[in-house]
Amino acid sequence: MSISRRKFILRSAIASPMIYNFHQQLDLLKSQLGEEINWDVVRAQFPIINWDKIHFNSGSAGVMPIMVQEYLTSLIAYMNARAPYEAWNDWQKIKKENIYRLSSMINAPEGSIEIVRNTTEALNMIIYGLKVDKGDEVIISSNDYPFAINAWKNRQERDEIEIKKLDITLPLEDEEVIKIYEQNISPKTKVIHITHITHREGHIMPIQKICEIAHARGIQVVVDGAHSFGLMKFDIQELSADYYATSLHKWLNAPHGTGLIFVQPQHIGQLYNHPSSYLKASDSISKFEHIGTRAFHQEIGISAALDFYDSIPYTAKVKRLQELKEYWIGSLQNNSKVNFHTFVEPRYSAAIATFSIEGYSGGQLVKILDRDYDIHIKSVSGPWGSGLRMSVNLFTSISELDTLVRAIKTITA
């Protein structure tokens, strides 16, 4: 796509006086960042600094930069000043460009991606669309997201498929994880469902190798990528996932309620259509967009999030998030009452890490940190017990991490 983003906007129906021109703010941001990224400048782009809580839960949902929020607000005004579907027709070129840009981020083939509302919706489309029959086996894991597990259990109830749920206590080395999956494959196995970055420990799973093993046996792989898109760079073709689902409102900081579904082109026609799609759309990824009226402005607002994401070099973002993670973990590693459930190395974790404190449940710690330290954090439970999931973000400051470290040291004193 040779046309520049700025020229594209100027030529399209979006070029209305009603639409917020975020490019002026984007240009200002780029001029202020400097060669060595000034992270205080980046932090100032987020409304998080106006919160009365320190925000350590980007794993559940990210925070839109201010310019993305203001662009989204102007899109709402534009849509409500016109007949909604007239506005949607005006925005079709923008949507197509958003899909092109999202595809380019992971090297997805043309016609393999569609915008949906979140990971759960995308997974439901895949899980309920896969043609598995009575007696066919699906492998899932205790580390998969509960709603995804529910979807498979519902299919089990409806279609009498067999579910093999693996109990895997993370973190583990890649070789150990691969061995567990490989040893549990049987002649009945038709599908493996696996999470790219686990929602509890933030553990990066060895997707590529597991896909290779599965494909050698004629097994398809569904990947829950809720936490990987925008947080880590990967090539979907090299990853070899047959199906991939993610949310854009987490690590891309896109409008809440935006996500995507990816299906390898050769599998699209093999999936059952979305219930309300046209039969003639069976071989097109567009069959997953027929969900009726929705927040059209959010799908278009993705463009501003993509521009913001592109304004900061990916390598700089990765380095920053790793440094922040290593900083708070390193500050607590010698505390004998703090147990970590995530490997700190970059190949095993990105911005998410989980820990527990002896004598306290995750729920108790959430209340204490909220009440006494104005810290918002997520409680999680795993095979190792109950603890806290910590998510750093580009807006996280060292002083905020110091507050968390002081709080934990006080609690464990």
Mean pLDDT: 92
Biggest sheet strand order reads 2-8-7-6-5-3-4
- In one word, what is the shape? globular
Structural class: alpha/beta
Strand residue content: 5-15%
Cα distance spanning the termini? 58 Å
Alpha plus pi helix count: 16
Poorly predicted regions are 8-13
Q: What is the CA-atom radius of gyration, in angstroms?
A: 22 Å
Element string (H = helix, E = strand): HHHEHHHEHEHEHEHEHEEHHHEEHEEEH
* Percent helix: 40-55%
**Count of DSSP strands:** 13
Features:
413 residues; alpha/beta; seven-stranded mixed beta sheet; four-stranded antiparallel beta sheet; 16 helices; globular
Describe this structure in words.
- The structure is a single chain.
- It is globular and about 60 Å long.
- Strand 12 (378-382) and strand 13 (385-391) form a beta hairpin.
- Helix 4 (66-80) runs antiparallel to helix 13 (296-311).
- Helices cover 42% and strands 15% of the residues.
- It has helices spanning 5-11, 22-33, 39-43, 66-80, 84-90, 92-106, 119-129, 146-159, 174-183, 207-215, 236-239, 265-268, 296-311, 314-332, 362-373, 398-412, and strands spanning 54-55, 113-116, 137-141, 162-166, 189-195, 220-224, 243-247, 259-263, 338-340, 352-357, 375-376, 378-382, 385-391.
- The strands form 3 sheets. Strands 2-8-7-6-5-3-4 form a 7-stranded mixed beta sheet, with helices on both faces.
Question: Can you describe this structure in just a few lines?
Answer:
Helices cover 42% and strands 15% of the residues. The chain is α/β, with parallel strands linked by helices and 413 residues long.
